[in-house]
Amino acid sequence: MNIAVIMAGGRGERMRLSYPKQFALLRGIPLAAYSLKAFSEHKDIDGICVVCDPSWREKFTEITEKYCKDKFLGYILPGKTRRESSKNAIDTLYVRYAPDTVVLLHDAARPGVTDKIISANLEGVKKTGAACTAIKCRDTMCVSESGTLGEDVRRDNVVALQTPQTFYLGKIKEAHDNYEEKKKRGEFVPDITDDTGLVKFMGGKVVTVQGAFSNMKVTEPGDLEMLEGSIFENEVKKEENI
């Protein structure tokens, strides 16, 4: 079984909106609708859950009923951080589904996810139990400290991580539990912000699958303008198909 989890628990304060950014309009359509539709229409996705604050669920339901009604499984409470929200989702699913269930975690604010990217994740997870969408960095990379340039970083060895991040349910549950147990015992744990980091922290391997520049995360107002342009037009389903 393959289940997509749409992460829509944050506020996205850098967008300077009075509402969560997943409701921001891109060509008159809420950002979250693009991801919901992409996963709903993929032939190998069996169900979709949404991590969303209860105060926004009524508004989100307007989107789920229109774009993924047949595959919608329900809502999950968000945590205080992205990692806690992810843990809530994993713990909830682990009670209901088998450990070999495939879980695809995806940001609601990434409207550019495609059928091809989803398929690549479903294939990639079979290799190590953990896969992450990524793109190669195009620019020259350099460490910067205190506003000055430091050591160069080899661009060939650097990738930018995207979502979906895809795991066997049992493996990502183990990764979350491992992190929490070490933290409770007072052992050093780094500040890990995504699920691939949790898998690596427990010694697991994460394979990368090809993403797309258009699968960018909307973080600031200018990002919407960028997606309105040719990149979104060429690489993602057009508005008339939404």
Residue stretches low in confidence (pLDDT < 50, at least 5 long) are 235-242
State the strand order across the main sheet.
5-4-1-6-10-7-11
* Name of the CATH class: Alpha Beta
Overall SS class: alpha/beta
The pLDDT mean sits at 89
Tell me the β content. Answer: 15-25%
Tally of strands: 11
* First-residue to last-residue Cα separation: 26 Å
Radius of gyration: 18 Å
Secondary-structure arrangement, i.e. CATH architecture: Alpha-Beta Complex
Secondary structure tally, helices: 8
Give the full name of the CATH homologous superfamily.
Spore Coat Polysaccharide Biosynthesis Protein SpsA, Chain A
Number of domains: 1
Report the helical percentage: 25-40%
Pattern of helices and strands: EEEHEHEHEHEEEEHHEHH
The coarse overall form would be globular
Remind me, CATH topology? Spore Coat Polysaccharide Biosynthesis Protein SpsA, Chain A
Largest sheet: 7 strands, mixed
